[in-house]
Design goal:
Layout: H1 2-32, H2 40-52, E1 58-59, E2 62-63, H3 70-82, H4 87-112, H5 116-128, H6 130-134, H7 142-157, H8 162-179, H9 186-198, H10 201-230, H11 240-246, H12 267-276, H13 290-304, H14 306-321, H15 326-332, H16 336-339, H17 345-385, H18 394-412, H19 424-443
Antiparallel strand pairs: 1-2
Subcellular location: Cell membrane
Protein name: Dolichyl-phosphate-mannose-protein mannosyltransferase
Membrane topology: Multi-pass membrane protein
C-alpha cells in the first residue's frame, strides 16, 4: 500500500509540474518570440479593433461575415474590458485558453484510458507540443477553437442532468459553430457517438434534437444580422463557396488555397467575378456575392471531375497532417530572424532548423500513429453502427468519430498545416493508445473487450 501511495503521489506531482512547465513555456514564448500578424491574423486583429472602437464587426468600413465571428467578437470585447487593443492582451488571452485546454485534455484522457503511463505520455505531449506553445503568439482562431473543441469532448465524456447537460453542450456547439462554421454539423457527430455508446434510439433522437435546437438559437441572432446586412440567408459566414471552388477547380494542382486570379474560369464566369470585385478595387473578403457563384461552380466541377476531386482531397489531407510544422516558422515566429541579436546568422539558422526538425518529427509521428489508431477502429465502428447489440467504449468512439469528422471536412474543402491544430490533443492520445495497442500485441496479451 505504501508503494502504491508513493507511486500515486509521484504521478500527481509529475502532472502538476508538467502543467506548470506547459504554462511557463506558453507565457515565455509570447513575451520573447516576436512575430508579425499577417493575412487572416491581421484581419482578425483589425475586426477586433473595430469592435473595440464601437465600429461593429467590420473591415475597411464595411460589415463583414467572411469568417466565423466568434474569435474576433470575443477579442474585441476583451479589448473593451481592458481598455486597450494592445496585441499582448490577445496573446495573454491565448495563453490562458491554451492552459485551460491543457487541463481539460487531462480529464478527457482520464476517460479514454485507465493506464497511468498512457495518460501521462499523452498529457506530456500536449504540454510541450511546439504547436500548442507557439500558436499563442498568433491572433487567430486556433487556440480558441481548440479550447472550445476540448470543452465539447469534455461535456460528452462527463454527462450529468440532461436538463442542464443537453442545453450546455448545445450552447458550446453553437459558440464553436460561430467560430468554425463547419461545426454546424457537429450535432450529428455527437449523436453518432452517443448511439455507438448506448444504442438507445429514443435518447439519441432527443439528444440530437436538443443539441441542434440550442445551436440554432445561439447562431440565430448572427444569422439575422447577416440577413439585415447582406440581404440573404447566411447562417454564419459567406466564405464556404469561396474556399470550396478555389480548392476544387481545374487549375488547382496542390489541393490548397490559390489566388482568385489563378483559378480556372470561363470567360463569362471570370467577367462575373471581376464585376463583383470591381476589377480588383474591392476586397474578396467583403464580396459576399461571390459565395453562391463559387459554390455552384465547385459542385459542377466536382460532378464532372470526380477523379481529380479525389486526388485533391488526398492532397489536402496530406497537407494538413503530413507537412510537418512549417506553419510555426511562417506564422508564430516570422520576425525572429530580423530581431535576433544573441546568435550570429549561421548559429541562428542552425538552431531554428533544429527546432523545426524536432517539430516536424513530432507532428509526423503523432499523425502517423494517431490516424493509424483511427483506421484500426473504422471497422468495429461501422459494424457497431448497424448492430444494436454491440457497444463501443469511449476510447474508440471519441477519437474515431471526431477525427473522422475533421478528415471529411478537410478532404472536401481545404487543408493546410495549421488546420490540424484543434485535433492535436486527440491525435496525441490516439497516438499513445496506438502504441499501447501495438505493444500489447507484441507482448501477447489479450485485447480488452470493446
Amino acid at each position: 500500500m505504501k508503494n502504491i501511495s508513493k507511486t500515486r503521489i509521484a504521478y500527481i506531482l509529475y502532472i502538476l509540474l508538467i502543467t506548470l512547465f506547459g504554462y511557463y513555456a506558453r507565457h515565455w514564448w509570447v513575451h520573447n518570440i516576436p512575430t508579425k500578424q499577417v493575412f487572416d491574423f491581421e484581419t482578425y486583429q483589425e475586426i477586433a479593433t473595430n469592435i473595440f472602437l464601437h465600429k461593429g464587426h467590420s473591415l475597411l468600413g464595411e460589415p463583414i461575415a467572411f469568417q466565423g465571428m466568434g474569435y474576433p467578437m470575443l477579442l474585441g470585447y476583451v479589448y473593451r474590458w481592458m481598455g486597450s487593443n494592445d496585441i499582448m492582451i490577445a496573446k495573454n488571452l491565448n495563453v490562458m485558453l491554451s492552459t485551460l485546454t491543457l487541463i481539460i485534455s487531462f480529464f478527457i484522457f482520464a476517460r479514454l484510458t485507465n493506464k497511468l503511463w498512457v495518460l501521462a505520455a499523452a498529457y506530456t505531449i500536449v504540454a510541450i507540443l511546439p504547436n500548442y506553445i507557439a500558436y499563442n503568439n498568433v491572433i487567430g482562431t486556433e487556440v480558441f477553437s481548440a479550447f472550445l473543441f476540448s470543452v465539447l469532448i469534455f461535456l460528452q465524456l462527463y454527462p450529468f442532468d440532461k436538463k442542464i447537460h443537453y442545453p450546455l453542450l448545445g450552447l458550446f456547439i453553437g459558440i464553436t459553430a460561430l467560430t468554425k462554421p463547419f461545426f454546424m454539423a457537429y450535432p450529428v457527430v455527437a449523436a453518432v457517438a452517443l448511439w455507438l455508446r448506448e444504442k438507445d434510439m429514443k435518447k439519441t433522437a432527443i439528444y440530437f434534437a436538443a443539441l441542434f435546437a440550442v445551436m440554432i438559437l445561439v447562431i440565430a441572432p448572427w444569422t439575422y444580422r447577416n440577413y439585415q446586412k447582406f440581404g440573404r440567408f447566411i447562417p454564419v459566414s459567406y466564405n464556404s463557396g469561396y474556399v470550396f471552388y478555389l480548392n476544387n477547380n481545374e487549375n488547382n494542382s496542390t489541393g490548397g488555397w490559390m489566388p482568385i486570379k489563378d483559378m480556372y474560369a470561363t470567360e463569362e464566369f471570370r467577367k462575373q467575378v471581376d464585376e463583383i470585385l470591381e476589377h480588383g478595387q474591392r476586397s474578396e473578403k467583403l464580396a459576399h456575392e461571390l459565395d453562391p457563384l463559387f459554390k455552384a461552380e465547385a459542385k459542377k466541377w466536382i460532378a464532372e471531375n470526380p477523379g481529380k476531386f479525389l486526388k485533391l482531397g488526398f492532397l489536402r489531407l496530406k497537407g494538413t497532417f503530413f507537412s510537418g510544422a512549417w506553419d510555426i516558422d511562417s506564422w508564430t515566429m516570422n520576425e525572429l530572424r530580423e530581431k535576433q541579436q544573441w546568435w550570429d546568422k549561421i548559429e541562428f539558422e542552425r538552431n531554428k532548423n533544429l527546432f523545426r526538425g524536432f517539430s516536424d518529427m513530432v507532428i509526423h509521428l503523432m499523425s502517423s500513429f494517431g490516424l493509424a489508431y483511427v483506421f484500426f477502429n473504422v471497422k468495429p465502428a461501422l459494424l457497431c453502427l448497424f448492430n444494436k447489440k454491440t457497444l463501443l467504449g469511449n476510447h474508440l468512439i471519441i477519437p474515431t468519430v471526431n477525427i473522422g469528422f475533421f478528415l471529411a471536412i478537410y478532404f472536401i474543402f481545404e487543408g493546410q498545416a495549421r488546420y490540424n491544430f484543434p485535433l492535436l490533443f486527440l491525435l496525441a492520445i490516439s497516438a499513445v493508445l496506438c502504441i499501447e495497442r501495438i505493444h500489447r500485441g507484441f507482448a501477447g496479451t489479450n485485447s480488452p473487450q470493446i
